[in-house]
Amino acid sequence: MSNTVKNTRNVAIVGPYSSGKTTLLESILSVTKAISRKGNARDKNMVGDSSIEARDRAMSVELSVASTKYQNIDFTFLDCPGSIEFAQETYNALVGAGVVVVVCEPIIEKVLTLAPLFKFLDDWKIPHLVFINKIDRNFHDYREILQVLREASHRPLVPQQYPIYQKEQCIGYIDLVSEQAYHYHSHSPADPVPLPEHLAESEQTARMEMLETLADFDDHLLEELIEEIEPPQAEILKDLKQELSADLIVPVFFGMAENDYGVRPLLDALVKEAPSPEITAQSRGLTSQAQGTTIAQVLKTYFTSQGGRLSLVRVWQGELNDGMTLNGERIGGIYRLMGQQQIPVQQASVGEIVALGRLEASTGDTLTNSTKPIEPLPKADPIAPVYALAIAPKNRKDEVKLNGALSKLLAEDPSLYWEQHGDTREVILWGQGEVHLQVALDRLRRKYSLPMSTHLPQIPYKETIRRSTNAHGRYKHQSGGHGAFGDVYLDIKPLPRGEGFQFHQTIVGGVVPRQYIPGVETGVREYLQHGPLGYPVVDIDVTLTNGSHHSVDSSEQAFRQAARIAMNEGMSQCNPVLLEPVLEIAVSVPNEFTSKALQLITGRRGQILGYDRVADWKGWDTVSGYLPQAEMHDFIIELRSLTLGVGFFNWEVHHLQEVPDRLADNILATAESNGK
Ligand SMILES: Nc1nc2c(ncn2[C@@H]2O[C@H](COP(=O)(O)OP(=O)(O)O)[C@@H](O)[C@H]2O)c(=O)[nH]1
Ligand SMILES: [Mg+2]
Question: DSSP string of 95-116?
């Protein structure tokens, strides 16, 4: 075991789709010389977008990892997908990040969408800073962008740079800690230049704002400010580091990843201000002292194209050595990842993020070499699925492979979920949206040779009756020597919604012998699986009131048949109606979109129950209501398009309700033409 504790930092890069995260990572790798040729989004050759699914879509659809060295620190970067449909993947990874760079474009609408991400980071107390990218576009009003960022963030912002403009273009910046001005240079470090005189006053104001925010958490600095003593740079840096580490402040930087502008200052800040892995471990309740005990957590599970399982882990305590036993299993290799490349290493120390071969563990699991049980580390909450497709293998002979492939797919991506529906028998794949499911289906096809066809899931309608009736059923059959005979009278009655099915009998004098009564109930239950409209029947009471039997020919079987005949006759008299499942939903949106959310629900035959502020989430409302399940399929798509992509909802099936007549006619006509 080596005793050298490596100086490591791991950094997650997150932010909205297309803000330039993968480009920023590419720039970091190029600036730090981890790669010799810089790729770009246009040529689809960036390290972070190396999976086929990502290249096809020119967007990141899963976490990708790369390492580099800068100023003697070993950095691991996690390039997280930005699309809301892959948020689970991102949250699972953020749980292991030491520090997070939130990348955003200087576009007000996009900055507003950062609120859920900031909330997650603050809930987990994960230190994070902001990098405003693409300053070659729309960056004229830095102050306005900062203002909107302030609205989205719960923690105070600490801008550490001040922009220098020339003809509306940002050509450089002033570092507010050192008060040194710089001009950008494409693909080489920025040039120090004298501080432009016309900016002296604004720079002073911006710097004072920075210091005052820092002083809110440091009395010593506050005293210095009051007494107008110039605080030493070392003190400012110490405060920045402490306050960032404790997630008290959010430093802000800007640049242009495409030309490497602002990338070195960002890296410098990560070196000087980001907490060491020991500090991150402490804030997660771990001590790094516990000698000999290694604790790691799975951030993601991959299946390689050769079918091998790789678990991406963060080492929280102790160190990992190849061949070590974790949770009773031997590690089959430790790898540092560089995009699609796997580089074998012998060991990994606190704070490192590496992939381990051949472990059965799932994403979020805590791994340890300790034989004593340990408290598992917290994992990110699962995000409720909001979008579904019914799927079936294109080739029937592939059906046997489906279960195994789906379980691997789910291990890789815990925000997928699948079920075989009890009523419709369809295999339903649930996820976060259209793209999410398409990526999953692509993987099934590519990795598991399972081309699938998809269709809209059927709505599990049920039916019930509005009227009571009495029905008679007689089954009589003579074949050769032995005959069959059963004869029943049934009372059929509707029950209130939600009561299900009840069966009674009021037989006197043994007209239907006791041993045959279960046969009657079975016959009734069998019939109820397909009522007169073709759907399972619920909320119904059936009472066996009378009947007759034959001493030789009667049997449980014959009474079962008789009951089916009686049900068949009786039910059509009972005025059957179609019932549809209704969901209870809670839709969460920024409050400027609350009225749109209300309209969306009512416009889809929903019913509003109320709406309220989301506790401790500035500016967000939750609308609760009922929504017919038939209206849910593309609900999330419309909700996102109304809310800049950030609205989401939770749901559960709540009750059944009668389908309005006109709609019911349509549903039944469609079902009939589909041969139901
Ligand atoms: N103008 C401009 N475009 C950029 C910059 N950085 C990235 N882009 C472009 O923004 C698009 C999205 O970049 P990408 O890194 O894939 O974004 P991601 O989805 O956040 O990973 C690509 O077309 C990039 O070329 C920048 O600094 N300026
Ligand atoms: Mg990307």
Answer: TT-SEEEEEE-S-HHHHHTTHH
**Is residue 106 a contact partner of residue 125, using CB atoms and an 8 Å limit?**
no
Q: Please state, in angstroms and as integers, the Cα–Cα distance from residue 648 to each residue in 85, 458, 586, 616, following that order.
A: 11, 23, 8, 17
Average pLDDT of span 581-600: 95
Q: Which residues pair with residue 649 across a beta bridge? A: 587
Q: What superfamily does domain 8-275 belong to in CATH? A: P-loop containing nucleotide triphosphate hydrolases (3.40.50.300)
**CATH code 3.40.50.1100 for 387-455:** no
Choice from 14, 18, 29, 102 to test ligand 1 binding pocket (greatest atom count within 8 A of CB): 18
- Find, among 257, 259, 243, 249, the residue nearest to 13 by Cα: 257
Nearest in space to 516 (alpha carbons), one of 479, 482, 544, 480: 544
Element (H, E) at 544: strand 540-548
Contact 561, 569 (CB under 8 A): no
* Spans of all domains in the chain: 8-275, 295-368, 387-455, 463-574, 579-673
Burial class (CB in 10 A: 0-12, 13-18, 19+), 133: buried
The ligand placed nearest to the CA atom of residue 107 is: 1
Q: Which two tokens stand for residue 146?
A: 């900062």
* DSSP 8-state class, residue 276: P
Class level of CATH domain 579-673: alpha beta
φ, ψ (nearest 5 deg) of residue 258: -60, -35
Q: Which of 505-510's residues contact partners 24+ apart within 8 Å by CB, and which partners?
A: 505/543, 505/544, 505/545, 506/543, 506/544, 506/545, 507/544, 507/545, 507/546, 507/547
Ligand 1, CB cutoff 6 Å, lining residues: 17-23, 40-41, 59-60, 82, 133-134, 136-137, 256-258
Residue 316 in 3-state DSSP? strand
- In ligand 1, which atom is closest to the CA atom of 103? 20
Q: Is the pLDDT of residue 305 over 80?
A: no
CA distance 626 to 635: 13
* Neighbouring-strand partners of residue 455: 390
The protein residue whose alpha carbon is closest to atom 2 in ligand 1 is 134
Confidence of residue 414 (pLDDT cuts 50, 70, 90): confident
Mean pLDDT, the chain, rounded, equals 92
90-145: pLDDT as tens digits: 999 999 999 999 999 999 988 988 988 999 999 999 999 999 999 999 888 899 99
> pTM of the prediction?
0.87
Strand order in the sheet with 469-478: 469-478, 483-494, 540-548, 501-505
Instruction: Judge whether residue 252 has pLDDT over 90.
Output: yes
DSSP E strands in 52-109: the ranges are 64-70, 73-79, 99-104
- Given CA atoms 117, 146, 138, 184 in this order, what sign does their dihedral have? negative
